[in-house]
Amino acid sequence: MRSIFSPEGAVALRRTVETQALLVFDFDGTLAPIVDDPADAFTPTATAGLLLHLLGHFKIAVVSGRSTQDLAPRLGFSPTFVVGNHGAEGLGDAPSAGHLEAAAWLMARLAAHQPELDAAGVTLEDKRQSWTLHYRQAADHSRARQAIQRAIEPLDERLHAFGGKCCVNLVLASASTKGDAVEALVAQAGASGVLFMGDDVTDESVYRMSRPSWLTIHVGRTEHVTGASFYVDTQRDVASVLRRLVDLTHTLGH
Ligand SMILES: O=P(O)(O)OC[C@H]1O[C@H](O[C@H]2O[C@H](CO)[C@@H](O)[C@H](O)[C@H]2O)[C@H](O)[C@@H](O)[C@@H]1O
């Protein structure tokens, strides 16, 4: 991975503008800084202003692990496309087969383990098509992870679990991923290229599907192995990338 602020990164950003690529952003940790309480996450005003400006030149998508209903008031701008639930919601497809049964299985397991989960400081975010068990505010993260593990394992075969930032996510095993969603959006937008920025395990599905014409930028360098081509060091650098795109649209007259 190279810095997007390297000479190679400058070439890749220029190509993004020249080809009027589809701009795709993850939300938490990418457009919005990570905060203790998920309810407090919003796109900073300056970032939303840059995105609003870029909407005059590009189609923009936000592809998030949150539900689309939760996302809308947090964005600060109205993207061309919004996809939620890690790729499973917003592209017109009905919830995956077995959804109700899997949800019932999960709720029963969580109810059975409620006292232990509560004592460990684990909270549930129910997004209807996926579920997140949060432990950022738990006193002992290791204890919280163990409580989650005891509650969900052995996991129902209709579900898939994966880690995130101080959380465990559960999605339908048959559900579309963020990678599937970006592919579908490229077709829908008729775009020849993509710029994608993400920061989390769930964003790796996009990096894995990446084509030579896609520019993938990971926020952060050390948290986990990543297949992105470029990185920025912190979430604050996302606004700098957006500013460079705005400058390039002026320089290149797009
Ligand atoms: O795909 P994303 O848009 O990055 O969504 C991933 C999850 O983000 C949220 O949780 C994370 O951000 C919270 C706010 O900063 C933080 O408190 C939490 O520890 C993080 O895991 C969101 O609540 C989840 O639903 C998303 O799946």
From TrEMBL:
<comment type="similarity">
    <text>Belongs to the trehalose phosphatase family.</text>
</comment>
<keyword id="KW-0460">Magnesium</keyword>
<dbReference type="InterPro" id="IPR023214">
    <property type="entry name" value="HAD_sf"/>
</dbReference>
<comment type="function">
    <text>Removes the phosphate from trehalose 6-phosphate to produce free trehalose.</text>
</comment>
<dbReference type="GO" id="GO:0004805">
    <property type="term" value="F:trehalose-phosphatase activity"/>
</dbReference>
<comment type="pathway">
    <text>Glycan biosynthesis; trehalose biosynthesis.</text>
</comment>
<dbReference type="InterPro" id="IPR044651">
    <property type="entry name" value="OTSB-like"/>
</dbReference>
<dbReference type="Pfam" id="PF02358">
    <property type="entry name" value="Trehalose_PPase"/>
</dbReference>
<dbReference type="InterPro" id="IPR036412">
    <property type="entry name" value="HAD-like_sf"/>
</dbReference>
<protein>
    <recommendedName>
        <fullName>Trehalose 6-phosphate phosphatase</fullName>
        <ecNumber>3.1.3.12</ecNumber>
    </recommendedName>
</protein>
<keyword id="KW-0378">Hydrolase</keyword>
<keyword id="KW-0479">Metal-binding</keyword>
<dbReference type="InterPro" id="IPR003337">
    <property type="entry name" value="Trehalose_PPase"/>
</dbReference>
